[in-house]
Write a structure and sequence with these properties.
The chain is an alpha/beta fold. It has a domain of 215 residues: Rossmann fold. Helix content is 44%, strand content 16%. The strands form three sheets. A seven-stranded parallel beta sheet has the order 3-2-1-4-5-6-10, with helices on both faces. The longest helix is centred in the N-terminal third of the chain and has 20 residues.
């Protein structure tokens, strides 16, 4: 590759994508970042940082000039926003803006980072790439925005643009700097702020495997196809027990009923609407947790060669990063 542009590199997955590109000497790596965003770890990679914003088409055109590859990883990943339209603006219109700019710049291939939020799932079992979400599964503005954004990526692919779609499940690991909602769950555990758990489940994957999956999608993926980048389906209780083993902290033993979690989420989110501060327990997160979010990544393993690092190793890296960087107090 020649010039490579990565969006979202100040975030969790995007940082690791940029790091993999630099380590693999894949080309000259440029990272689009909004003015004022935290760039401490990104600067250590030795990439070229360009000022820009997904809502500013002119900045995208400048950033993509001469680019051969685009990894569009950036997304507004929040389970609560005082103004939900902010997520639509960044995730949907921002994706449309950058894909239009990539088409105009004649970028050879784009890897678009979607989410399993944009993948459907059956009533029982695990979801795969053949499924779209039912309306009832699109809980909250984040999930809706990611699905609508993926529809934009699919449209550009149908119109002849070389776009490959990857759908990470629930990445965990180091450098979750903000952190993401999943990183916050790990942090709450480490801080002793998780006295109970819900009966739910997630598909966990090492964020470094997710980053490698992006590069493999560039090399081996088929235009217009989607690939779930995941690994292991685990109940929340299994995740917390594994966190206990790698961190040395006790896991909660009490399972909270859904109605109690809903009531706590309702009150926390209602107060957030008044105070303007993010809720400690987002109601949308509680609603999502009502159903297990299990997925299959067989296609990415088979067609791309997606690595499957043990989830325990990924959780160890997450715990070490949070502890080493002062997140745990």
């Amino acid at each position: 590759m020649g010039k490579i542009l990565v969006t979202g590199a100040t975030g969790f997955v995007g940082y690791h994508v940029a790091k993999k590109l630099v380590e693999g000497k894949r080309g000259e790596v440029f990272c689009l970042a909004r003015p004022g965003s935290e760039k401490k770890f990104l600067k250590n990679l030795g990439v070229n940082i360009l000022a820009g914003d997904l809502r500013d088409p002119q900045s995208l055109s400048r950033a993509l000039e001469g680019a051969e590859a685009l990894f569009h990883v950036a997304a507004d990943y929040r389970l609560w926003a005082k103004d939900p339209d902010e997520l639509i603006e960044s995730n949907v219109r921002g994706t449309r803006n950058i894909l239009e700019a990539a088409r105009a710049a004649k970028v050879r291939r784009t890897v678009y980072t979607s989410s399993v939020s944009a993948v459907g799932r059956p009533e029982h079992g695990s979801g795969d790439e053949s499924m779209d979400p039912a309306p009832a599964h699109l809980i909250g503005p984040y999930k809706k925005s990611k699905y609508l954004a993926e529809l934009e990526a699919r449209r550009f692919a149908r119109e002849g643009q070389d776009v490959v779609i990857v759908n990470p499940s629930t990445p965990v690991g180091s450098h979750d700097v903000k952190p993401t909602p999943t990183g916050k769950l790990i942090l709450d555990f480490l801080r002793g702020k998780m006295p109970a758990y819900l009966d739910t489940g997630l598909n966990l994957v090492d964020v470094e495997d997710v980053a490698e999956g992006h590069l493999l999608a560039w090399e081996k993926g088929k235009a217009g196809e989607r690939y779930i980048l995941g690994n292991r389906n685990m109940t929340l209780k299994e995740i917390l027990d594994m966190l206990s083993r790698v961190s040395g902290r006790p896991a909660p033993e009490f399972k909270i009923p859904y109605w109690a979690a809903y009531a706590a989420g309702f009150c926390s989110t209602a107060w957030a609407g008044i105070s303007g501060q993010p809720p400690g327990i987002p109601l949308d997160g509680v609603k999502m947790a009502r159903e297990t979010m299990f997925y299959r990544s067989d296609k990415a393993v088979r067609e791309l060669g997606l690595p499957q690092t043990p989830v325990g190793t990924a959780l160890e890296k997450a715990v070490r990063f949070f502890r080493d960087n002062g997140y745990c107090g």
